[in-house]
Specification:
Structural class: alpha+beta
Number of strands: 18
Oligomer: single chain
Radius of gyration: 51 Å
Length: about 675
């Protein structure tokens, strides 16, 4: 240990410890305020670790002999921690980063040299490491910061001088020169600490300035408007906000001027949002609305606002986004979704929305007369226009029809287009409960005139179904079902016709769906029966043939007419299975009669048009005849005229193949198709 013979040396050690303590705390205080200045943290911790060294010397000299080992450990711990933290801080400060391997090499060399010196002279081993390292670090920092600012360049020389004084103190351990060197080193350590504190603060200021410049660039180049207001004053507005509102001078911008031209209730709504912020009931509020620029043009803006501070003044920051283009696109998409492209009329979605609004806003109890009606209109045989003249002429027919209806009945007639050839009127019954029927009669009168196209004049017929609320249905979907069912009833009457819905029409679609499901089960369970109606020669009274009439013996509905189930079978594709079942039953019955009677007349069986569209029907007939051992003359197949007219080429081929088998084929309902 150093031979302390004077209180002056003790005081010098205490001063050294105090300087290290103050500068260490000062550097850590700077780091706590500016956490990105990591070198200040490392250097401050190194200064605090150095405090242990003079106290270790003091305890070793002034304390009990038993404390010698503890004081030695205190000195070693303080010096080692100081060296490691100084090395870490120096590399950070100079912009370097030591790898783990470099750290290991440095520690190994340091320990080897220190142990070697310790074996030679304990006093020198304890005193030399810190100043020697300071000399080395000073040289490295001076070299690394030779192009930095003048203040930063001073760090390296100061570390170098402190290290040199420390080495001299370690070698010259006695007398006034040692005390002088110790005090001078303390002064230089103080200067080094002050320089490091200054540099840390300067770095923090530069970092703050850099962040401020970055924020300023972001704000100035932002496409969103940013504004800060304190009461009636606008403290800041970025260029985007000025452009959104069309201002050129910030002095002319005021919160009141941004609300000009909007309704009073919206102004009160905005003030309500701001009161929520100022009272603390909300941290962040949003709203949007129509605003007006300086030139009077309208813009749709979205606002976000929250509390902030601006130069220690309580303020509100606004983020303003121009949503005009997005709103226009949204409205265009909504318009496209709710309106028909060809005619410009509201479409099915718009109709359902209008019906839901009307049904929801109308009290259903206590009504003695309809509140509104739905007139559904379908063009008869519209497919013929497209097939005969092409889709362009078909589209022109629709456009001319719409133009005529709107011209004669007025733009407010409530006309909508539901599909290819279907239209609808939503008619109010406030003044006249029979207004929907009057609209239908008006359409009938208009269609007595031809539609004048660019190259053709056409007469068209339509079928109309009328449903009344709440007499026939109580919701939008039910109204549409009832009117649609009534329209199909009207189609049974030739010419432009009208049918009024009935309450049962609301369930029309449900009944059809139920029939489709039960029909499949009925075919599997063979629930169909044939009844045979005799055909007699009117002149002679002689029996000429039987006509097979199909009936469905439903366990739940009783006997069902073919008028109902044949259409369902054709629509669902079950007609082939049903036709094969009925044809087989007819052949079985004829075979039984032939076994019991000598002379048997043929049986006439109706054939669905869809059965004739498949190429396998003649083969099916031939197979059944062979299976039951029947001659071809035992059957007479009756085909409706509509099947022959709709598909003449294919039907002709099937008839020729049947006649080649010897089976007679006739036309049923001649002249009706």
């Amino acid at each position: 240990m150093l031979p302390y013979t004077s209180d002056v040396v003790l005081y010098s050690l205490l001063v050294n410890a105090a300087v290290n303590l103050m500068m260490g705390l000062a550097l850590l205080w700077v780091w706590l305020g500016h956490r990105n200045q990591l070198f200040a943290r490392d250097m401050g911790a190194a200064q605090l670790a150095q405090v242990l060294v003079p106290w270790g010397y003091i305890f070793g000299q002034r304390g009990q002999p038993a404390w010698a080992g503890a004081s030695l450990a205190l000195v070693v711990i303080g010096q080692t921690a100081n060296i490691l933290l100084m090395l870490r801080g120096s590399t950070r400060f100079a912009g370097w980063k030591l790898s783990r391997r470099e750290w290991q090499i440095f520690l190994s060399l340091f320990l080897l040299v220190d142990m070697a010196v310790l074996g030679f002279q304990q006093q020198l081993a304890l005193a030399w490491p810190v100043p020697a390292f300071l000399v080395w670090a000073g040289l490295l920092v001076s070299r690394g910061l030779r192009r930095s600012a003048s203040t930063e360049r001073a760090v390296g020389p100061l570390m170098l001088v402190v290290g040199v004084l420390g080495i001299g103190q370690a070698l010259w351990v006695q007398g006034g020169m040692a005390v002088l060197q110790m005090n001078l080193a303390s002064v230089l350590r103080l200067a080094l600490g002050l320089v490091l504190v200054y540099i840390a603060l300067e770095h923090s200021i530069l970092e703050s300035r850099r962040l401020h410049n970055r924020f300023q660039r972001l704000v100035e180049r932002s496409h969103q408007g940013i504004m800060v207001c304190a009461g009636p004053r606008v403290l800041f507005a970025n260029p985007a906000l000025m452009a959104i509102y069309g201002f050129t001078d910030l002095a002319k911008v005021a919160p009141a001027s941004l609300l000009q031209g909007i309704p009073a209730n919206e102004v009160e709504q905005v003030h309500g949002h701001l009161r929520q912020l100022n009272s603390g009931r909300a941290d962040h509020v949003q709203w949007e609305g129509l605003r007006y620029r300086q030139d009077g043009s309208a813009v749709w803006l979205r606002f976000s606002a929250w509390l902030t501070r601006w130069d220690d003044v309580k303020a509100i920051q606004f983020l303003v986004t121009d949503q005009t283009r997005r709103r226009e696109v949204t409205q265009a998409l909504q318009l496209q979704a709710m309106y028909d492209d060809l005619t410009g009329l509201p479409n099915r979605r718009a109709l359902l929305q209008a019906l839901r609004e009307r049904c929801g806003n109308q009290p259903q109890s206590g009504l003695t007369s309809p509140s509104f009606g739905l007139v559904l209109l379908g063009i008869d045989r519209f497919k013929l226009f497209n097939e005969a003249h092409g889709l362009t002429v078909g589209d022109e027919v629709l456009q001319v029809l719409v133009a005529m209806l709107l011209h004669e009945m007025g733009e407010g007639c409530g006309l909508m287009r539901l599909g290819a050839d279907e239209f609808a009127f939503v008619v109010s019954c406030d003044d006249d409960p029979n207004r929907p029927q009057a609209v239908a009669r008006q359409v009938q009168a208009l269609l007595q005139r031809p539609l004048v196209l660019s190259q053709h004049d056409f007469f068209i017929d339509v079928s109309m179904g009328i449903a009344l609320f709440p007499e026939h249905a109580q919701d939008a979907e039910s109204m549409l079902r009832a009117a649609n069912t009534a329209m199909h009833v009207a189609k049974r009457t030739p010419g432009t016709s009208v049918a009024l819905a009935e309450a049962r029409f609301e369930q029309g679609s449900s009944d059809v769906l139920e029939q489709e499901q039960t029909l499949r089960t009925a075919i599997e369970r063979r629930e169909f029966k044939l009844f045979y109606q005799p055909k007699v020669d009117a002149h002679t009274g002689r029996l000429t043939s039987f006509e097979a009439l199909a009936r469905w013996d439903s366990p739940t509905r009783g006997w069902v007419s073919p008028v109902e189930f044949i259409a369902v079978a054709e629509r669902t594709g079950l007609i082939d299975d049903l036709g094969q079942l009925l044809l087989g039953q007819a052949c079985a019955q004829v075979a039984d009669w032939r076994n019991r009677f000598d002379d048997v007349v043929p049986v006439a069986i109706n054939v669905s048009p869809l059965q004739m569209l498949g190429g396998g029907f003649p083969a099916l007939v031939e197979g059944l005849l062979q299976s039951y051992g029947l001659p071809a003359k035992a059957l007479l197949l009756e085909l409706t005229e509509s099947a022959a007219v709709s598909n003449p080429a294919e039907v002709r081929e099937q008839i020729l193949r049947l006649r080649a088998l010897g089976v007679a084929v006739g036309l049923d309902d001649f002249g009706t198709g």
